[in-house]
# Entry
Amino acid sequence: MDIEQAKKRAEELRPLLKYYTQKYFDDEQVVSDYEYDMLMRELKQIEKEYPELITEDSPTQRVGASIKKGFVKVTHEVPLQSLQDVFTFEEVEEFDERMQKAAVEYNRPLEYVVETKIDGLSSAIEYKEGKLVRGATRGNGTVGEDVTENISTIKTVPKVLKEPISITVRGEVFIGKSDFEKLNENRLLEEQEQFANARNAAAGSLRQLDSKITKSRPLNIFIFNVQKCDDINFETHYESLLYLEKLGFNVNPVKILCKNMKEVKAAIEKIGNMRDDLDFGIDGAVVKVNDLILRENIGTTFKTPKWAVAYKYPPEKKETLLKDIVCQVGRTGVITPMAILEPVHVAGSKISKTTLHNEDYIKQNDIRIGDRVLIQKAGDVIPEVVGVVKEKRDGTEKVFEMPKTCPVCGAKTVREEGEAAVRCIGVECPAKLYRSIIHFASKDAMDIDGLGEAIIAELIERKLISNIADIYNLTFDDIASLKKNGKKFAQNLMDAIEASKHKDLYCLINSLGIRHVGVKLAKTLTKYYKTMDELMNSSYEELRMIDDVGEITAETISEFFKQNQTIDLINKLKNAGLNMEAIKQEASDNRFEGKVFVLTGGLENYTRDEASKIIENFGGKTSSSVSKKTDYVLAGEDAGSKFKKAQELGVTIISEEEFNTMIN
# Structure
């Protein structure tokens, strides 16, 4: 690619990699290690070919992520660097060639130590005269988080060393495979959300603000490096590892001393073959120069040592039987097909089911019930069906079809044009209950102050509500029982529930969670339909005559109000005394009638919502994007791309001061 193409691609990759990195260090892995590595590799190659494109904040130039709020910052005396990744033996050989040249130049012996790359959270532990004084996470490599109290709860972290020496060591905190399975089994029994993978579970456990939670988790640690030790001059890395064992540390058990590249390759292959048998997760094999003086002469970059590389194994694939495909209904109504598998061990975990994403994914990959399939689980994240072994089909396999009705509530399912998701449209579907009530009680809907997510979850758990209308059947005692000394809370919530009965019709329409209908469109609908009954009896053709209602939205609204569940819910809300009519507004000033505004940047005297309401009260509309139909762009501080777009299209740009003049 030429430099312009390279620049464009680099600008796409950097924010994406930063986002993935931050999520990873927030203990939420959203892509596999392999996908992340390939994107990082692509960016490094671009910056190698065009060094002028390297930026200071590029992910290739930085280590780690931000510090979690609540922790004291720790500056590492010796940085906790990352490692240069390689993916082929050819790259390992290139690394060896560089090391051989350095060994000749500095007249030092060349040996390597090959170790397992533990998949956990890297940490530094400091001892003074043999006593543990501080533990810290890697953080961004230079500054980490003080987790002394947490790290001291790990049984394999010695509180006092066998010799009264001052030393700082580096290790990887992890949860073993068998311990991870037990942890998730217990969470399942306690009806808690299961951890996606062992690495995130370990990282999240170590970074708890409450050390009691950390202590309750089966954390372990392998020490793999001496960061600082003024009392002893080690000649080799291998020697330092043996000394760490002598001090009482739980040292990485897989450490293979290699005299040449042939032995290095054999060690990498050996570790690769033993991955399934290890009771801890690994995400590669680390190759390190053994001689410490040679290391010092070779040096480091800002981010990585030049004397080590991490060999990343290709994603592991295993074959198994796809026994069935069942459907799960998510909290938003999206129906997800799940593959029920003959249990198989992949990358250290037993897999018995996995998502098949959506209808298109199944069709594109021609996945059928009864197929022999290939499962991949790169980086210990959620597994996928990545292929079908079609040559093993015997004719008994069955083609899968998405259900026409919801498997939970029996309501109709729909798939809108241009979307991959199939959805349940039942307003009373139990699978959607939690999210439905959160939306119903929200500020722009029925605005039931005090009915927050935690309270809703507890009401559902105690079976005090099983549908939206049950909110209006709650008693004072029901609510008071949710909190210790909860009488005041109960009275406030009862008052908020009662007040919601008198909300305007557009609030009720918005609260129902009709797809594509938000507060703006709900307001528009009440200009044409003054009662809920009028709206419920409207036809698709009538709805299409409204300017802001397109084909898909008209179909969605029409279909929603035909459902028995919708009719049942509206009747229940009527019986509960909720207002079903548009509240007549006093004659208003329509000075902005027919005008479209776009807001951008920060306003001094208004929030975006406040400014939008003012515009709507004067008969105008707001839009999220600038087009030729836009009449005004209200620009505050740090106005961005919308400001530039308005200039390009010749749209009138007004300041907050000019806006004040217009409304006053």
In short: The longest strand covers residues 317-329. The longest helix spans residues 3-25. The mean pLDDT is 89.
